[in-house]
Design goal:
Radius of gyration of chain A: 19 Å
Helix content of chain B: 10-25%
Low-confidence stretches of chain B: 273-279
Shape of chain B: globular
Bound molecules: flavin-adenine dinucleotide, flavin mononucleotide, FE2/S2 (inorganic) cluster
Oligomer: heterotetramer
Mean pLDDT of chain B: 90
Largest interface: A-C, 53 and 53 residues
Largest sheet of chain A: 8 strands, parallel, barrel
Structural class of chain B: alpha/beta
Structural class of chain A: alpha/beta
Chain lengths: 325, 279, 325, 279
């Protein structure tokens, strides 16, 4: 066994002790009142129930469920996963039970949780998004909608909605008109100018943006000489993409006035603080659940510890609190 | 949760048997279930690694003693398993489980046939222990154990202690029959059917091609059969939908099923007529 | 100390022994004859001399020197480096000695090397690129030019040339007309559709494309609450970006007919083979030099070993040799 | 190249002294130069870590014995140094060096003053060894050693063995003068100038703010001064231009200079008038 020496913290522990007041981690965004800024990212937390055995779901700021489509989707053929340095490639292919089954079989479990429930929706046409939004707005357990616009737009030759300002505007506007629920638009990082896309979503009336979705990537099994994923290209997540995500959260925060929800490679409280300082009002834990199901709780504790150490009483004190040289 | 390593025993160049102190998991465990182990706290490998529960473990020699831990039998194939092999007694590892759906042993089994390829023996020993404990069988249980060389033939004595009669094959002929384990297994099935021993239940674990062949044979003779399958996993708890495999049966028409949740043990014999063509 | 058990290779060593013929790693591309496909990426290998103490430069397929501008550039203020999970952020700010000093003080050393020398050039206007190309074409020690189009185009409000098909076309075409040297266009990954940019470069007459340059990223020092880099945003390189790079090399290879030079996170021979299978005709080692100066030599050995193991005699046998399910 | 660990000695909670068997590097090494160490073979930390050469090392007690290795004095501050601390005797590490420009000792130095903050003592001991070996000094060499607490006061006895007279300060007063080391240092300089001892050469290593103050004092009294600076590094060999620092002098007007190549030791005293305002 290797000795594991402790790392000396640069500041003394005294700093932490001097301000023991429990910081206030509540945050209001997009008309929602979150008990804390730690959410769980769509697709990494199933429909909530899967992780209820490991953590207390009531401690989460919000649960964002796996993306729901109008009709069930069977998803992509396996293999769907490949590990890369500090990252994970996935090509689930948006497999989900579909709107009807979601409402019947998944939503009831969530009734027992007192955290916010945000439903991530996806469509292949604007009409599908609108139909989903309309139906989900009827259910009181649904607190907000998150629009996944990284999906191929079949009316535009399969180009993802979120790679184009115009398509983004159109789909967000249509959904905005269909629902009174708080609306979060989830941005794709696979674009030249994410700030421009965010601005289009804002103009179209979204209440917040969340980012980043996964970065397109690929891995090859050199021994079999075939792609590691059956569908060749997949989405990269995990620590590897954190610097890309922090950069985009920073750029988008500078460009829009609506709140930003940050994610991409958050593994611990320090990572989460990085996103908050970059301008995010809340953050989501994704791939980290697979590594440690207790991550969201640990992230929250880490944020609190950071706030106590530097004597910040409210989240507003750290959001975007960055000195640019 | 955290488990302390009681022992990390090197069986041969690539095989290790890891004994972990984790009563909670051990007492809930059923044969065929698995655990997800975080081999280190680095970003590489990022994900946990799945391992079948090889055996329940107790420090006491008393037979009815409660399980205090579990054993994992593993083979070094890459970074994660290499790191796991480097850990020593006393080290602590992060583990979750038991996970997934194990072997179904509800109905009385009169003639269990177990078949394993290589490391596939790992979960079958736990199953053999249970069969030995619970059942007074009319016929001696049998195990078909195949590998590339004799190094890949694992736990022979343990299965024998559990009262199993063993058929062994190696591809290089260094132990037992020279060739693939499907050969003696097919021969046995053929003979058994001729002699009317059709109350057979097959339990299989090993490489996917072998599992296909076993399932095919089971359907051919209309036998009950359960196979344990593998797929790369991320969450291990059914949340990410990453570990699916195309394996449907009459009761479960959905095309892709999660190895970590609906599996790793799937029905593969007479109840699986729906998608026979796909296997 | 920890015991380090060997990893069992999935194939037996017999496969390797059965074909001991030294594979032919020569490759022709863009009118160049490389003795092997292993190049070193611009900016990670100085002007060649810096690493001459550690490896035999004559064993390299080609040396791509640090980007040269018309006039010396002093670069960005420090800090210029930040480590991220499996990655490195840099913001060197294109510091270089400028064309004149390059020719006078750096090129002479390279005369003694018999590997190809490729000069990476950068400009802020098309005229600057043209002036550089014109002057460098007069020097016989310069075997080819690599156009770094990730630079801000001052005539277009600072947007990088390489983020736009039209600007890419224009700059490549202008340089094409100014030089008879083989021309490689180095693509930026910070775009929605890299295949389209590559096609524009091909149309404009580039002989090859190389990719990827660094991915824009950012890191924050949460204790000082300021960006880790003085210039806030920097370029991400290293293993973290490998899946992004492999994906882009694959996409570009499918889209163009000219050769592709692949790079991004290559640390060893297996990584290099991944790029070759994805469609690259040659590869560059970058950040890996910092980890191990001998990487290029090890990468070449790794490629050869792979070729022997699977009995490939020429590089052409593995380039793009990928089965798509 | 690869170096074997002869010893990894824990001096106190956060400080270690690592002895490495690497004759090649040792024999070329000059005080103030550094090495780049790869602490493991993982992707995190990805980069090598720079460490000053603390001392040449030899297994023989004979004074004129050739150096067989080097010593590194390090403090745990993050992942890389924590990993380095976990390595034991016999382990092999990947190291390159010696690198950079060390202290210039060419001209006869009549009155060397060394000043170090914390881990800055590391390269100064090698320098002190050289001063002790080479010079018959008219005045006793002096070392000013500062730290937060007495734990940060390193190598006291070794400097004394080299014939140095020591001035110690700690911020908490747990050893020596209570306060910053600049205080006794400034006092000494003032007095020395008054008494006409102006053949002073200053050698400094420590945190950047201290280096600025030392350089400022040297310029004030028009003294020769060399400071060893730190910056994050990637290549360590001058190739990446990542480690620059704004530190110009009359001979080197270029704004940014590479700590790994032009440094880590820079001229900072009377020859640095050009950019005085920037320091
Ligand atoms: C339910 C289940 C139970 C398992 N039980 C055992 C067991 O009891 N003992 C045991 O030794 N192994 C078992 N495995 C396989 C084990 O999980 C893999 O060998 C391990 O994850 C490889 O990790 P690595 O980092 O060493 O290899 P990697 O570096 O990740 O990969 C090395 C090689 O192993 C292959 N591989 C990686 N993950 C898997 C996987 N999940 N299944 C099959 N091949 C894989 C890769 O394709 C690659 O060729 C089980 C797998 C599953 C899904
Ligand atoms: C020329 C040179 C000589 C050095 N000599 C020594 C020595 O003899 N003994 C010694 O203990 N340390 C020395 N250092 C500093 C040492 O390199 C860093 O402490 C080490 O790289 C930190 O690595 P880490 O992974 O433990 O910390 P990280 O996890 O990388 O960082 C932890 C903290 O250390 C800071 N840090 C990281 N790298 C550096 C750096 N290069 N300089 C200053 N701060 C840094 C970070 O900002 C962070 O706050 C030297 C640095 C240089 C440039
Ligand atoms: C397995 C998996 C499935 C995902 N499914 C969805 C999804 O259905 N809808 C969606 O908007 N994002 C989905 N994502 C993206 C995540 O929500 C998140 O944006 C991304 O993984 C980055 O965060 P991370 O690095 O913390 O995982 C998925 C990610 C993973 C890894
Ligand atoms: C420190 C540093 C400096 C670089 N400078 C240049 C440059 O001047 N011109 C250029 O085209 N690319 C430059 N690059 C990009 C590399 O050539 C390469 O495209 C990128 O780093 C990806 O490869 P890697 O992950 O193997 O490093 C630089 C990269 C690094 C890390
Ligand atoms: S591994 Fe995530 S669903 Fe099975
Ligand atoms: S660290 Fe690369 S130039 Fe100094």
């Amino acid at each position: 066994m290797t000795r594991k020496p402790e790392i000396r913290s640069q500041e003394s522990e005294a700093g932490i002790r001097s301000s023991c007041r429990q910081p206030d981690t509540r945050i209001r965004l997009a008309g929602l009142e979150l008990k804390n800024p730690v959410m769980v990212a769509s697709g990494t937390f199933g429909y909530g129930e899967e992780y209820s055995r490991f953590i207390d779901l009531n401690q989460l700021g919000a649960i964002v469920v796996k993306g729901i489509s109008l009709h069930p989707m069977e998803g992509n053929p396996p293999p769907r996963l490949a590990e890369t340095p500090a990252g994970l490639l996935n090509s689930i292919g948006l497999q989900n039970v579909g709107l009807e089954a979601f409402i019947k079989t998944k939503l009831p479990f969530l009734e027992s949780i007192d955290s916010l429930v945000i439903v991530n929706i996806l469509g292949h046409t604007i009409d599908e998004y609108v139909a989903l939004a309309t139906e989900l707005s009827k259910h009181s357990r649904v607190d907000a909608l998150e629009l996944n616009i990284s999906c191929p737009n079949v009316d535009k030759g399969g180009l993802a909605f979120g790679t184009d300002c115009q398509s983004t505007f159109e789909v967000v506007q249509a959904v905005r008109q269909a629902t009174g629920l708080p609306l979060i638009t989830k941005l794709s990082p696979n674009v030249t100018n994410i700030a421009a896309i965010a601005s289009s979503a804002q103009e179209a009336g979204t209440d917040a943006v969340s980012l980043i979705n996964t970065v397109l990537g690929m891995a090859i099994d050199i021994h079999q000489r075939k792609p590691a994923l059956a569908r060749v290209v997949g989405g990269l997540s995990g620590p590897a993409i954190k610097p890309i995500a922090v950069r985009m959260v920073f750029q988008v925060s500078q460009a829009v006035d609506i709140p930003v929800i940050g994610m991409g490679g958050i593994m611990n409280g320090d990572d989460a603080v990085e996103f908050l300082l970059a301008g995010a009002s809340a953050i989501s834990v994704g791939t980290a659940h697979f590594v440690d199901p207790e991550t969201p709780i640990k992230v929250l504790k880490g944020i609190e510890k950071y706030m106590m150490r530097y004597q910040f009483n409210t989240l507003a004190d750290i959001i975007g609190n960055l000195t640019i040289p | 949760m955290t488990a302390k390593i009681i022992e990390n025993y090197r069986i041969s160049s690539y095989y290790y048997r890891l004994t972990l102190d984790c009563a909670e998991i051990a007492q809930k465990a059923a044969p065929g279930q698995f655990v997800m182990i975080r081999v280190n706290h680095e970003v590489e490998p990022l994900l946990r690694r799945p391992f079948s529960i090889h055996r329940q473990w107790t420090s006491s020699s008393h037979r009815s003693a409660q399980a205090e831990g579990i054993q994992i039998l593993f083979r070094i194939v890459g970074k994660g398993t290499a790191h796991l092999a480097s850990l020593s007694r006393g080290a602590k590892i992060d583990i979750i489980g038991p996970l997934g759906q194990g072997f179904r042993l509800k109905t009385a089994i009169s003639h269990p046939l177990l078949i394993a390829g290589g490391i596939g023996a790992a979960p079958l020993l736990f199953l053999a222990d249970r069969i030995e404990e619970a059942q007074a069988l009319p016929l001696q249980p049998r195990l078909f154990l195949g590998g590339k060389t004799k190094e890949d033939i694992l736990c022979r004595e343990d299965f024998e202690k559990d009262g199993f009669s063993l058929h062994i094959s190696t591809e290089d002929g260094s132990m037992g029959h020279k060739g693939l384990i499907m050969e003696p297994f097919s021969d046995y099935l053929k003979q058994a059917m001729l002699s009317g021993k059709n109350e057979i239940t097959i339990f299989a674990c090993g490489p996917l091609p072998l599992m296909y062949k076993v399932a095919e044979a089971a359907r051919q003779y209309n036998l009950s059969c359960q196979v344990s399958l593998e797929q790369k996993m991320a969450c291990g708890v059914g949340a990410c939908l990453g570990c699916v495999i195309e394996w449907a049966d009459a009761d479960n028409p959905s095309r892709y099923r999660r190895v970590c949740k609906e599996g790793p043990v799937f029905e593969a014999g007479r109840r699986c007529e729906a998608r026979r063509q796909e296997l």
